[in-house]
Amino acid sequence: MKTRRETGNSTPLLPPSSPPRISGAIFFALPRQVRGARLRGAMATSPEDLMRRTLALAVDNVRARRGGPFAALVVRGGEVIAEGTNRVTTTNDPTAHAEVVAVREACRRLGSFELAGCEVFASCEPCPMCLGALYWARIDRLWFAAGREAAAAAGFDDAHIYAEVPRPPEERVLATRRLLVEEASAPFTAWAELPGRVEY
Ligand SMILES: [Zn+2]
């Protein structure tokens, strides 16, 4: 979970497409390396520069009280298509993790439900939800900085979700029961019979 220690805030929420704003005082409190990455902005093209920009975004997100200490970029051909930061507590959305926010914004901007040809830079190893989202988005490559152990040490432990995935549904902590199995093929039949369906 990447929200446990977050608290509410009074900072007005920026629309997802806005570039991150940062006050001068906060900017100059950032490490020099991080400031450099921010100044290079869209010119940042090396993986290291892009990850520094991602880490700077995450720091900014925390200090601006917009959410948890996580950020992500969607990049195509060295161009930053979208930025995302954790907005769980400020949008009351448990799925508003940085990677999901970035993927949604990139898809909106590209007018596509796939991000083939894109790379994602994440400040931290994605949780199972975000990892799944990145597979569904069919990105080409994932880069991340902090490992899940560092996230756990900071209070954002998703190990229990990773542990749940390989378990049989009935053995998971999340109470799960099947119902109407014999009637459950109706949606698939409808899909198979739909002319001109958009495959994904
Ligand atoms: Zn996540």
Give a short overview.
The chain has 200 residues and is an alpha+beta fold. Helix content is 40%, strand content 12%. The chain binds zinc ion.
List the SSEs and their pairings.
Blueprint: H1 24-29, H2 32-40, H3 47-63, E1 71-76, E2 79-85, H4 88-91, H5 98-110, E3 119-124, H6 128-137, E4 141-146, H7 148-153, H8 159-164, H9 186-193
Parallel strand pairs: 3-4
Antiparallel strand pairs: 1-2, 1-3
The chain binds zinc ion (ZN).
Kindly describe this structure.
- The protein is of the alpha+beta class and 200 residues long.
- The protein is built from 9 helices and 4 strands.
- It has helices at residues 24-29, 32-40, 47-63, 88-91, 98-110, 128-137, 148-153, 159-164, 186-193; strands at 71-76, 79-85, 119-124, 141-146.
- Strands 2-1-3-4 form a 4-stranded mixed β-sheet.
- Helix 2 packs across helix 3 (47-63) and helix 5 (98-110) runs parallel beside helix 6 (128-137).
- The two termini are 28 Å apart.
- Mean pLDDT is 85; it is low at 1-28.
- It binds zinc ion (ZN).
- Zinc ion binds at residues 2, 97, 99, 126-127, 129-130.
